[in-house]
Amino acid sequence: MSEFKIRLIQNQQEKEEMYYQRWLVLRKPIDMDIGTEKDEYDDYYSLHLIAVCDEQIIGSARLRQLSTELGSISYVAVLPKFQSQGVGTALIQKVIEIAKEKQLKSLKVASRLSASKFYERIGFRSTGQPFDFLGIPHQLMLFNLPYFQNL
Ligand SMILES: CC(C)(COP(=O)(O)OP(=O)(O)OC[C@H]1O[C@@H](n2cnc3c(N)ncnc32)[C@H](O)[C@@H]1OP(=O)(O)O)[C@@H](O)C(=O)NCCC(=O)NCCS
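Above are the sequence and the coenzyme A SMILES. Below is the predicted complex in structure-token form.
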């Protein structure tokens, strides 16, 4: 794979491309229609990160701030051809970097059970019991951010 870059989406066209990429990874395999990959928070209080390789969006993730202390990660998706090459980790590391800048204390994600090892490797810990969403077992996971006190 050529080099990839993680950055925020820059315009509406990129946002539409990102939705399509999100649909391809997270909804098409479970036979869900185009449009089901979005929710009411996508346009508000959300930051959209993308991984770009040769001008193609190969990965994406959303960070939504729920309070002054808590951020929520969702729609983490890497195109199958580009999985297991560090793209997902780089996306989450960038989310963590932004969360630190915002001085959040923790991040949560409802991970597909199949991806929980991926989050564990980054430092997330499972909490509570697995639950079902869209017919897929999920697990709530938390990441505590280091708190830097201003001296
Ligand atoms: C889960 C996902 C975001 C990880 O992104 P990625 O770019 O493949 O991850 P990385 O290459 O940074 O790390 C891969 C590591 O995560 C772990 N992992 C756990 N579950 C995994 C999965 N379903 N797919 C890929 N890696 C997984 C493995 O340990 C893997 O290491 P390995 O390649 O040495 O086996 C990506 O595989 C994906 O989009 N999967 C399908 C959709 C999904 O499950 N999204 C998460 C919703 S919460």
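The chain has one domain: 5-144.
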